[in-house]
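Technical annex, item 7. During the second reporting period the consortium partners agreed on a shared format for inverse folding records so that results from different sites could be compared directly. Each record opens with the tokenized structure and is followed by the designed sequence. A conforming record, contributed by the partner at site C, is shown below for reference.
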């Protein structure tokens, strides 16, 4: 009787393991592509995730492994994620590095193990271990310096007719290559206008909305007669907007920022914000996964390893432009299931 019960139990367990409802592992896709953003909270990264999922869906037999640190300042945590994916032997890695220096060694480690890597959004410092590797698949991103130039051009347009306007630029975070390029483009363009006084404090906005708001409140308490403010990413734009609202100065100071979320678009409509430089994060995620799968299928890499994605300036006047609207109002629910 005991032997009969044991045999029955074994058959039951076997049957259960064959059923998805009992927690059996799903068959592994042919390609497992790890997509590692700088952070996971901003709408920008959600769009990259959706673009990666769309590319995987189109190619078929491709699984997206999405994992990143909660905050964009968590360099060490991002390094650990890359090292874990490397040890797991994923098919390819798509990475938006938190820091242009500290992420070089883990990327070199992945490449040495033969894992293809695509860098997106923000660049890494050049190294022979990356540039000379046959597994380095290139860089897919906005032309960030040009984005800073466009932000400056929008600011100059907004300040026409002002005598000796004063413009504040709050930098994001040292080591973030993308925002450093935007800041450099903005500074170089504004400094061509001798009538504009550019103020660049030592304080940085930091990786969160809350840190950006606190820094902005502190700076604005000293700077009473500003005409314009530029900030180079989504969280810092949101933080500065909140600071201006709290001080009842929203709309009085011309605010130009980067990226979009529903709150920023609403502020633009209300005249509290005056320009947003928009990237195409969906396309970044999409193109980077396509490039990875092409390489894994043996297709030759394009000669040009750098791909610059779409760049537009959103204003109150062009909100309904069909060429711009997908950059801030794309429906991601069918892909992300949110």
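Designed sequence (site C submission):
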């Amino acid at each position: 009787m005991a032997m009969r019960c044991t045999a029955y139990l074994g058959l039951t367990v076997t049957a259960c393991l064959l059923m998805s409802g009992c927690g059996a592992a799903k068959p592994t896709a042919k390609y497992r592509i790890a997509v590692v953003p700088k952070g996971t909270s901003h709408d920008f990264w959600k769009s990259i995730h959706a673009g990666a999922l769309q590319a995987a869906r189109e190619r078929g037999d491709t699984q997206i492994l999405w994992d990143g640190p909660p905050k964009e300042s968590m360099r060490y945590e991002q390094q650990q994620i890359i090292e874990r994916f490397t040890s797991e032997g994923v098919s390819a890695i798509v990475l938006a590095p938190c820091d242009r220096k500290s992420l070089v060694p883990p990327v070199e480690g992945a490449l040495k193990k033969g894992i293809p890597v695509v860098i997106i959004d923000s660049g890494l410092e050049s190294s022979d271990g990356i540039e000379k590797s046959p597994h380095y698949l290139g860089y897919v991103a906005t032309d960030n310096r040009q984005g800073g130039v466009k932000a400056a051009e929008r600011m100059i347009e907004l300040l026409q007719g002002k005598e000796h306007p004063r413009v504040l630029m709050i930098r994001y975070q040292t080591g973030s290559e993308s925002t450093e390029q935007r800041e450099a483009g903005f500074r170089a363009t504004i400094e061509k206008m001798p009538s504009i006084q550019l103020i660049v404090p030592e304080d940085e906005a930091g990786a969160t909305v809350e840190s950006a708001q606190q820094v902005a409140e502190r700076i604005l308490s000293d700077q009473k007669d500003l005409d314009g403010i530029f900030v180079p990413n989504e969280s810092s734009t949101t933080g500065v907007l909140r600071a201006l609202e709290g001080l009842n100065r929203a709309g009085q100071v011309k605010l130009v920022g980067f990226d979009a979320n529903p709150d920023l678009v609403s502020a633009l409509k209300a005249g509290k914000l005056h320009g947003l430089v928009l990237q195409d994060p969906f396309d970044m995620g999409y193109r980077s996964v396509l490039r990875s799968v092409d390489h894994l299928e043996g297709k030759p890499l394009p000669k040009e390893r750098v791909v610059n994605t779409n760049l537009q300036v959103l204003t109150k006047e062009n909100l309904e432009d069909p060429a711009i609207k997908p950059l801030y109002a794309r429906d991601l629910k069918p892909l992300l299931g949110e």
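Confidence is low (pLDDT under 50) at residues 1-25. DSSP finds 13 helices and twelve strands in the chain. All partners now use this format for quarterly exchanges.
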